[in-house]
Design a protein that fits this description.
By secondary structure, the chain is α+β, with helices and mostly antiparallel strands. It has 19 helices and seven strands. A hairpin with a 4-residue loop joins strand 3 and strand 4. It is globular, with a radius of gyration of 20 Å. The protein starts with a helix and ends with a helix.
Length: 340
């Protein structure tokens, strides 16, 4: 595996837990190793990272083999706290739920360098989302698991029982909605274009039981050092910040390079140089998110092609149709039919 792949992707801790979950669902070690390209011996190295697509391939094999629609829930209920890369232990000392969750967003690079955990402040409520560029390829299963894990963190680790107000998941409509609602203890909407939790502001701002300002300052500094050791160039504060900015700008249908750079607190030239240094162009990173959103919207059959084109900031539906076919080899209509 190249140095580049060793530095990017997901830490072995989370990968090992998914690998063990596959075994518990009846999958053989050889089959999982062949599908993911990762041997069990490699997983034993706690500092190694694996390409995101290895995790995607492994999870898709589990889904294909086991048709249980509650798989994300079963995985989360049995997952050890190690899947948080040590972040749960630090979060318990935060003064409020909001501070604890901001601690998670600040350190999401320790889970995976393309995992984006974000909080946006809506007028009446905070909304926490989990995104990944590969969401479209697995129906958002891995990001949905992130939302399930955060709910478990909120309830089991932080002891806040009334935080979720509503949950929106990209999981298919055939999933076990009632069981998910019992887990979150609030309404759950499926077949959405996002994976996110709307939170009760009172619970978000309320002090949590284990609050300890001195200990939290210590663990916060500890994780800051871990981010620096991970990569002295600060991937979360630079490249990941750029990726997060693209996702955040897409919420307001703004896919312009200048706006993305500004959102990431970078000049346009600095943003372009940063992307190139990591082997991308800034426009490629933007297009990656744009087409992920396009595919997700096409799976919402209540949206017309024209509405989707407008939401993606194309000049008209013909421009969107041409761009989509150039990128995927399929027209938007044909892609939509393939997802029925």
């Amino acid at each position: 595996m190249s140095d580049r792949n060793q530095r990017s992707g997901l830490f072995s801790g989370l990968f090992a837990v998914v690998f063990a979950f596959g075994q518990s669902r009846g999958l053989g070690i050889d089959d999982m190793a062949a599908a993911s390209g990762v041997s069990p011996l490699e997983i034993m190295n706690p500092d190694k990272r694996f390409p995101d697509r290895a995790m995607l391939a492994l999870w898709k094999l589990i889904i294909k083999t086991d048709k249980d629609s509650t798989l994300p829930l079963k995985f989360v209920q049995g997952a050890p706290m190690t899947v948080y890369a040590g972040l749960a232990e630090g979060a318990r000392f935060a003064d409020t739920l909001g501070t604890a969750l901001e601690h998670m967003t600040r350190n999401d690079v320790l889970i995976g360098d393309r995992v984006a955990i974000n909080i946006r402040q809506a007028p009446d409520t905070p909304i926490l989302s989990v995104r990944h560029p590969l969401d479209i390829e697995d129906d958002g299963y891995l990001s949905a698991i992130g939302v399930f894990l955060i709910n478990r963190l909120i309830r089991d680790v932080l002891g806040v029982d009334d935080a979720p107000v509503s949950v929106r998941l990209r999981l298919p409509p055939s999933a076990a909605k009632e069981e998910f609602e019992a887990f979150f203890q609030c309404p759950v909407q499926l077949a959405e274009t996002v994976n996110e939790i709307e939170l009760n502001r009172g619970a978000y701002e309320r002090e949590i039981n284990h609050a300890n300002a001195e200990l939290f300052a210590y663990v916060d500094a500890y994780f800051a050092r871990r981010r620096e050791v991970l990569d002295p160039s600060h991937p979360k504060s630079r490249l990941q910040r750029l990726r997060d900015a693209i996702v955040e700008q897409s919420i307001s249908s703004d896919y312009t390079a200048g706006s993305v750079a500004k959102r990431a607190n970078l000049s346009l030239r600095s943003a372009q140089r940063l992307a190139l240094k990591e082997g991308f162009t800034l426009q490629k990173l933007i297009d990656e998110v744009r087409f992920e959103n396009a595919k997700a919207m096409l799976e919402n059959f209540d949206l017309s092609i024209n509405q989707i084109a407008n939401a993606l900031s194309y000049s008209d539906d013909r421009s969107f149709r041409r761009a989509f076919k150039r990128k995927t080899g399929m027209s938007p209509t044909d892609y939509r039919k393939s997802r029925q």
